[in-house]
Design goal:
Elements (H helix, E strand, L loop, with lengths): L9 H7 L6 H7 L3 H19 L6 H11 L8 H12 L4 H9 L6 H7 L2 E4 L6 E4 L2 E6 L2 E7 L4 H5 L6 E5 L2 E2 L4 H5 L7 E8 L2 E8 L1 E4 L4 E4 L5 H11 L6
Antiparallel strand pairs: 1-10, 2-9, 3-4, 4-5, 5-6, 5-7, 7-8
Helix pairs in contact: 4-5
Length: 240
Amino acid sequence: MTPGREVQSAAHTSFDKWINQGGDHGRNFSTNIYSEGSLLSMALDLKLLSDSNGQVSYRDVHRQLYNKHKLPKGFNEQDVIAILNELSGQDYAAWWAENVEAPMNLDFDALLNQVGLERVYPEDAKQIASLDVSTSMEKGLLKLDHVRRGGASWQAGLTAGDLIVAIDGRRISTDLATTLSAYSAGDKVSVSFFRRDRLQQVTLTLGQTYDKDAKVQPVPAPTPEQQALFKAWMGVELSD
């Protein structure tokens, strides 16, 4: 998920898809219709299943769209909302406005918990300090390719294209992780960098990340409700 999902809705993402310039600005101020759409579909599927006690799913929405709006006939968002209302027996207009027309405020962990799943880091994962950036090497210097909106480097005024020279006066070569391993999240550091061939310096507070990716697994003791919803969603039993 990109930071832009916090400021652009799925509806606007779909509209802007073919004119989005991408790059660092695109990641920070717009979102990906495919990743956003898949999460939105997941949230809608689970809501339908939960509201109908497992009797209605997202698949039924697609089936109704096909039956009622076959080519050459098209459909719009009001047609989709009407089908959601019909299938669920509830009014989905507010849900649509909150999650499709506005930037989706998705609590991913709460969504997973509905079906007895949780997102956890491996036991041997370590918290490490981070600049909240992605980088590459350019002419022997560390180039910022993406500066995450709201992250440590963003708040300090760094931007994509800046060339990092040193942290606390120590030269940065190819291994940013090794340099940051001497610090902890919350530490303040001085960053020296080139921007348009001018040497500059800022002080920033290091962010936090993990050295390993999180994974999704079943919760230790899923409730009967979680197990039932998982089976309705995936078609199989929830296993340990």
